Amino acid sequence: MIKEQCLGFHETPPLWTGEQFGIEQFVFPELNMKRFLPKPISKKLRLGHQMEHVFTQLLIRNSTYDLILHNQAVKEEKRTIGEIDFILKHRETEKLLHVELTYKFYIIDPSISEPIHRLIGPNRRDMFFTKMEKIRDKQFPLLHSENGIRTLSENHINHKEIVHQACYKAQLFMPYNDAHVDITPLNRDCIYGYWLKFEDFENGDFKKYKYYIPSKSEWVVNPHKNVRYSSHFETLMDVNLRTLNENAPMLWMKKSDTEFEKFFVVWW
Protein backbone atom coordinates (compact mmCIF):
# COMPACT_ATOMS: atom_id res chain seq x y z
CA MET A 1 0.00 0.00 0.00
CA ILE A 2 2.96 2.33 0.58
CA LYS A 3 3.66 2.57 -3.17
CA GLU A 4 0.02 3.53 -3.81
CA GLN A 5 0.31 6.11 -1.02
CA CYS A 6 3.43 7.59 -2.64
CA LEU A 7 1.72 7.66 -6.05
CA GLY A 8 -1.35 9.30 -4.52
CA PHE A 9 0.79 11.98 -2.91
CA HIS A 10 2.81 12.62 -6.06
CA GLU A 11 -0.29 12.84 -8.28
CA THR A 12 -2.20 15.18 -5.96
CA PRO A 13 -2.07 18.68 -7.47
CA PRO A 14 -0.87 21.70 -5.47
CA LEU A 15 -3.67 23.73 -3.89
CA TRP A 16 -2.51 26.76 -5.88
CA THR A 17 0.14 27.45 -8.50
CA GLY A 18 2.81 30.13 -8.48
CA GLU A 19 2.47 32.61 -5.64
CA GLN A 20 -0.73 33.23 -3.70
CA PHE A 21 -1.32 34.71 -0.24
CA GLY A 22 2.35 35.76 -0.13
CA ILE A 23 3.45 32.09 -0.37
CA GLU A 24 5.23 30.56 -3.34
CA GLN A 25 4.23 27.00 -4.15
CA PHE A 26 7.01 24.40 -4.39
CA VAL A 27 7.11 22.66 -7.78
CA PHE A 28 7.86 18.99 -7.29
CA PRO A 29 10.40 17.70 -9.83
CA GLU A 30 9.23 15.13 -12.37
CA LEU A 31 9.82 11.56 -11.29
CA ASN A 32 9.84 8.18 -13.00
CA MET A 33 7.80 6.00 -10.65
CA LYS A 34 7.93 2.73 -12.65
CA ARG A 35 10.68 1.03 -10.65
CA PHE A 36 10.12 2.92 -7.43
CA LEU A 37 10.33 0.64 -4.37
CA PRO A 38 9.54 2.73 -1.29
CA LYS A 39 10.61 1.87 2.24
CA PRO A 40 7.86 0.90 4.71
CA ILE A 41 6.16 3.69 6.67
CA SER A 42 4.50 2.98 10.01
CA LYS A 43 0.71 3.33 9.94
CA LYS A 44 0.92 4.32 13.61
CA LEU A 45 2.28 7.72 12.56
CA ARG A 46 -0.15 10.59 12.07
CA LEU A 47 -1.01 11.07 8.40
CA GLY A 48 0.94 14.32 8.27
CA HIS A 49 4.10 12.54 9.45
CA GLN A 50 3.48 9.72 6.96
CA MET A 51 3.39 12.35 4.21
CA GLU A 52 6.75 13.72 5.41
CA HIS A 53 8.26 10.27 4.93
CA VAL A 54 6.63 10.00 1.49
CA PHE A 55 7.97 13.44 0.52
CA THR A 56 11.47 12.47 1.69
CA GLN A 57 11.50 9.19 -0.26
CA LEU A 58 10.27 10.86 -3.44
CA LEU A 59 12.70 13.73 -3.07
CA ILE A 60 15.68 11.41 -2.62
CA ARG A 61 14.67 9.71 -5.88
CA ASN A 62 15.00 12.94 -7.89
CA SER A 63 18.23 14.45 -9.18
CA THR A 64 17.26 18.11 -8.72
CA TYR A 65 17.65 18.66 -4.98
CA ASP A 66 19.77 17.50 -2.08
CA LEU A 67 18.08 17.16 1.30
CA ILE A 68 20.02 19.29 3.80
CA LEU A 69 17.70 19.32 6.84
CA HIS A 70 14.50 17.50 7.79
CA ASN A 71 12.31 17.93 10.87
CA GLN A 72 14.80 20.18 12.60
CA ALA A 73 13.56 21.42 15.98
CA VAL A 74 14.07 25.09 16.86
CA LYS A 75 14.54 25.52 20.60
CA GLU A 76 14.53 28.33 23.10
CA GLU A 77 16.79 27.01 25.84
CA LYS A 78 15.34 23.48 26.28
CA ARG A 79 11.84 24.26 25.01
CA THR A 80 10.93 23.46 21.40
CA ILE A 81 9.24 26.52 19.88
CA GLY A 82 8.94 25.27 16.31
CA GLU A 83 10.18 22.93 13.63
CA ILE A 84 11.73 23.32 10.19
CA ASP A 85 10.18 20.80 7.79
CA PHE A 86 12.78 20.71 4.99
CA ILE A 87 15.83 22.61 3.77
CA LEU A 88 16.72 21.65 0.19
CA LYS A 89 19.65 22.64 -1.98
CA HIS A 90 19.29 22.85 -5.74
CA ARG A 91 22.14 20.86 -7.25
CA GLU A 92 22.74 23.20 -10.19
CA THR A 93 22.04 26.66 -8.77
CA GLU A 94 22.93 25.78 -5.13
CA LYS A 95 19.90 27.85 -4.08
CA LEU A 96 18.60 26.93 -0.62
CA LEU A 97 14.88 26.29 -0.26
CA HIS A 98 12.96 26.11 2.99
CA VAL A 99 9.88 23.98 2.23
CA GLU A 100 6.95 23.64 4.60
CA LEU A 101 4.93 20.54 3.74
CA THR A 102 1.15 20.28 4.13
CA TYR A 103 -1.22 17.61 2.86
CA LYS A 104 -4.87 18.20 3.72
CA PHE A 105 -8.41 17.02 3.07
CA TYR A 106 -10.94 19.84 2.98
CA ILE A 107 -14.65 19.97 2.39
CA ILE A 108 -16.05 23.09 0.72
CA ASP A 109 -18.76 24.80 2.79
CA PRO A 110 -20.79 27.13 0.52
CA SER A 111 -22.57 28.65 3.54
CA ILE A 112 -19.36 30.64 4.20
CA SER A 113 -19.29 33.77 2.04
CA GLU A 114 -15.54 34.22 1.40
CA PRO A 115 -14.17 31.52 -1.00
CA ILE A 116 -10.81 30.91 0.73
CA HIS A 117 -12.58 30.57 4.10
CA ARG A 118 -14.81 27.79 2.70
CA LEU A 119 -12.13 25.10 3.02
CA ILE A 120 -12.53 23.29 6.34
CA GLY A 121 -11.64 19.86 7.69
CA PRO A 122 -14.39 17.18 7.50
CA ASN A 123 -14.81 17.41 11.28
CA ARG A 124 -14.65 21.24 11.23
CA ARG A 125 -11.56 21.21 13.42
CA ASP A 126 -9.15 22.87 11.02
CA MET A 127 -9.33 25.54 8.32
CA PHE A 128 -7.21 26.24 5.28
CA PHE A 129 -7.00 29.97 5.99
CA THR A 130 -5.68 29.42 9.52
CA LYS A 131 -3.04 26.92 8.33
CA MET A 132 -1.96 29.17 5.47
CA GLU A 133 -1.55 32.14 7.82
CA LYS A 134 0.48 30.04 10.25
CA ILE A 135 2.93 29.03 7.49
CA ARG A 136 3.32 32.58 6.20
CA ASP A 137 3.30 34.51 9.48
CA LYS A 138 4.93 32.07 11.92
CA GLN A 139 6.79 29.21 10.28
CA PHE A 140 8.62 31.25 7.64
CA PRO A 141 9.68 34.07 10.03
CA LEU A 142 10.86 31.49 12.61
CA LEU A 143 14.00 30.86 10.54
CA HIS A 144 14.96 34.53 10.85
CA SER A 145 14.35 34.75 14.60
CA GLU A 146 17.27 34.64 17.03
CA ASN A 147 16.64 30.97 17.81
CA GLY A 148 16.06 30.07 14.15
CA ILE A 149 19.27 31.79 13.04
CA ARG A 150 21.23 29.92 15.72
CA THR A 151 19.71 26.56 14.69
CA LEU A 152 20.57 27.13 11.03
CA SER A 153 24.09 28.35 11.87
CA GLU A 154 24.72 25.14 13.84
CA ASN A 155 23.94 23.32 10.57
CA HIS A 156 26.19 25.68 8.54
CA ILE A 157 23.24 27.43 6.86
CA ASN A 158 22.98 31.20 6.37
CA HIS A 159 19.39 32.28 6.99
CA LYS A 160 19.80 35.18 4.54
CA GLU A 161 20.31 32.77 1.63
CA ILE A 162 17.06 30.89 2.15
CA VAL A 163 13.99 31.12 -0.12
CA HIS A 164 10.70 30.09 1.51
CA GLN A 165 8.16 27.90 -0.26
CA ALA A 166 5.26 25.62 0.67
CA CYS A 167 4.47 22.21 -0.76
CA TYR A 168 0.75 22.51 -0.06
CA LYS A 169 -1.25 19.63 -1.52
CA ALA A 170 -4.91 18.97 -0.85
CA GLN A 171 -7.91 16.90 -1.84
CA LEU A 172 -11.10 18.95 -1.95
CA PHE A 173 -14.67 17.70 -1.60
CA MET A 174 -17.60 19.72 -2.94
CA PRO A 175 -21.16 19.64 -1.56
CA TYR A 176 -23.16 16.71 -2.95
CA ASN A 177 -24.86 17.73 -6.22
CA ASP A 178 -23.20 21.16 -6.20
CA ALA A 179 -19.78 21.01 -7.84
CA HIS A 180 -19.67 24.66 -8.93
CA VAL A 181 -18.94 26.45 -5.65
CA ASP A 182 -16.38 29.21 -6.18
CA ILE A 183 -12.95 28.52 -4.65
CA THR A 184 -10.98 31.19 -6.53
CA PRO A 185 -7.94 31.48 -6.59
CA LEU A 186 -7.42 27.85 -5.59
CA ASN A 187 -6.83 24.95 -7.96
CA ARG A 188 -10.02 23.14 -9.05
CA ASP A 189 -7.90 20.15 -10.13
CA CYS A 190 -7.75 19.36 -6.40
CA ILE A 191 -11.44 18.39 -6.36
CA TYR A 192 -11.59 14.64 -5.71
CA GLY A 193 -15.18 14.06 -4.63
CA TYR A 194 -18.04 15.39 -2.57
CA TRP A 195 -19.50 15.43 0.94
CA LEU A 196 -23.00 14.85 2.23
CA LYS A 197 -24.93 14.47 5.47
CA PHE A 198 -25.85 11.11 7.01
CA GLU A 199 -29.55 11.43 6.12
CA ASP A 200 -28.62 11.87 2.44
CA PHE A 201 -26.40 8.77 2.46
CA GLU A 202 -29.14 6.82 4.24
CA ASN A 203 -31.57 7.19 1.37
CA GLY A 204 -31.92 7.29 -2.42
CA ASP A 205 -29.53 5.89 -5.01
CA PHE A 206 -26.79 5.13 -2.48
CA LYS A 207 -28.58 1.93 -1.45
CA LYS A 208 -27.70 0.06 -4.66
CA TYR A 209 -23.91 0.33 -4.43
CA LYS A 210 -21.14 -1.20 -2.29
CA TYR A 211 -18.74 0.63 0.03
CA TYR A 212 -15.38 0.55 1.71
CA ILE A 213 -14.30 2.77 4.60
CA PRO A 214 -10.55 3.40 4.11
CA SER A 215 -8.17 3.89 6.98
CA LYS A 216 -6.68 7.37 7.19
CA SER A 217 -3.45 6.06 5.63
CA GLU A 218 -5.53 5.13 2.56
CA TRP A 219 -7.22 8.52 2.20
CA VAL A 220 -4.45 9.65 -0.15
CA VAL A 221 -5.03 6.65 -2.46
CA ASN A 222 -7.47 6.61 -5.40
CA PRO A 223 -10.32 4.11 -4.87
CA HIS A 224 -9.74 0.67 -6.40
CA LYS A 225 -11.40 -2.74 -6.42
CA ASN A 226 -8.77 -4.67 -4.44
CA VAL A 227 -10.41 -4.23 -1.04
CA ARG A 228 -13.47 -5.78 0.59
CA TYR A 229 -16.60 -3.80 -0.24
CA SER A 230 -19.74 -4.08 1.91
CA SER A 231 -23.41 -3.54 1.27
CA HIS A 232 -25.08 -0.20 1.93
CA PHE A 233 -26.89 -1.70 4.93
CA GLU A 234 -23.67 -2.95 6.56
CA THR A 235 -21.87 0.29 5.83
CA LEU A 236 -24.76 2.39 7.15
CA MET A 237 -24.40 0.93 10.65
CA ASP A 238 -20.67 1.63 10.72
CA VAL A 239 -21.09 5.18 9.39
CA ASN A 240 -23.89 5.87 11.89
CA LEU A 241 -21.66 4.85 14.79
CA ARG A 242 -18.85 7.11 13.57
CA THR A 243 -21.13 10.09 13.09
CA LEU A 244 -22.54 9.62 16.59
CA ASN A 245 -18.95 9.94 17.79
CA GLU A 246 -18.61 13.15 15.73
CA ASN A 247 -16.23 11.55 13.25
CA ALA A 248 -16.76 12.12 9.52
CA PRO A 249 -15.59 8.99 7.63
CA MET A 250 -14.36 8.89 4.07
CA LEU A 251 -16.10 6.30 1.89
CA TRP A 252 -15.19 4.68 -1.38
CA MET A 253 -18.27 3.79 -3.41
CA LYS A 254 -17.97 1.00 -5.98
CA LYS A 255 -20.36 1.44 -8.87
CA SER A 256 -18.63 -1.18 -11.04
CA ASP A 257 -15.17 -2.76 -11.32
CA THR A 258 -13.99 0.37 -13.13
CA GLU A 259 -16.14 3.15 -11.64
CA PHE A 260 -15.65 4.49 -8.13
CA GLU A 261 -16.50 7.61 -6.16
CA LYS A 262 -14.91 9.10 -3.06
CA PHE A 263 -16.79 11.16 -0.48
CA PHE A 264 -17.18 12.13 3.17
CA VAL A 265 -20.28 11.65 5.31
CA VAL A 266 -20.38 14.48 7.83
CA TRP A 267 -21.99 14.42 11.27
CA TRP A 268 -22.70 18.12 11.80
UniProtKB/TrEMBL annotation:
Tell me one Pfam family matched here. Answer: DUF1853
Q: Which InterPro entries match?
A: DUF1853
Question: What is the protein's given name?
Answer: DUF1853 family protein
**What is the source species?**
Zobellia amurskyensis
